[in-house]
Amino acid sequence: MAFICRDVEETIRFYQEFLGFPLVEIVENRDYRGSTHFFFDIGNGNLLGFFDFPGHEHPAATETVGGVQHVALSVEAREFDAARTSFDKAGIAYIGPDRGVEDSLYFRDPNGVPLELYRERLGMFNGEQILPADDD
Average pLDDT of the chain? Predict the structure, then answer.
């Protein structure tokens, strides 16, 4: 996935320093002079990309047909607990375990992108295997 961000530095701080996803590449966008294209390693062999488009208005993110409802990221229990503690300390609003969804934290990044941290092994959902088991 690749999203558009309002502020490159703020987005990098949030994903790398706050969530702990390392920034692995940052280059100039080949299609738009002065625009940046950058990627975070979000685990499990996946990258999350962002562009910025200086000078363009960025309306608030909205949930609509064809839009992103949220990006779900599977994390280990340790990472989930650390994120919740960090959110509480930083005063970042989230919806989560308190509403009966014990293994999920729903929140928005600084750009309004809706995210979920899901505390269950990759390929599992509600305790059931939904991806083939890794035979390695």
Answer: 86
| Amino acid found at 132 | P
Helix (H), strand (E), coil (C) string for the chain: CEEEECCHHHHHHHHHHHCCCCEEEEEECCCCCCCEEEEEEEECCEEEEEEECCCCCCCCCCCCCCCCCCEEEEECHHHHHHHHHHHHHHCCCCECHHHCCCCEEEEECCCCCEEEEEECCCCEECCEECCCCCCC
How many residues does this entry show for the chain? 136
Residue type for position 34 = G
Cα–Cα dist 56/106, whole Å: 28
| pTM score, whole prediction | 0.81
**Least confident residue range of 17-26, 59-68, 77-86, 121-130:** 121-130
pLDDT in tens, 108-119: 999 999 999 988
